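Researcher: Please translate sequence to structure tokens.
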Amino acid sequence: MNNREIKELANHLLSLNDIQNAMYNLKVGDQLEEMISIFSQNNLGNNFEKTVIDKAIAYLNQEHNEYIFNIGRGLGSPMLYIALREEKETNKKNHTSKTMLDLEQALNKLGIETDILFHVDPDTLLTDDEFENELNLYKSILKTR
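Model: Translation complete:
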């Protein structure tokens, strides 16, 4: 695909209802990130190679610097992660940010092996409460076994 086609694909992505809703939710809500399955039948389907999608995401990051766009792994297909740049950067400055990778490492230290990183972007930020809730959830699941 040439640059014009990449730009058209990026603009098409940006116009999808799921992405517009996620961007709206980020502005009015209290979440750091939203994730969308852009490869679902409602959105792009499986019609594009990952390298093409990566170029479209790079274009979105360049042209819409209010947001951070990132592709990560989801359940069955890659997911598009969207964050408000200012919120994410403020969170990093104000907190010792924890990520899904930190959660996976904490679980491993407890002897809990999980495939969580196959389902989420390892760089997804978690608040302290989200981190503790997820950790406690996994601990409680093990106790019931």
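Researcher: Any highlights?
Model: Residues 22 and 34 are 6 Å apart (CA to CA).
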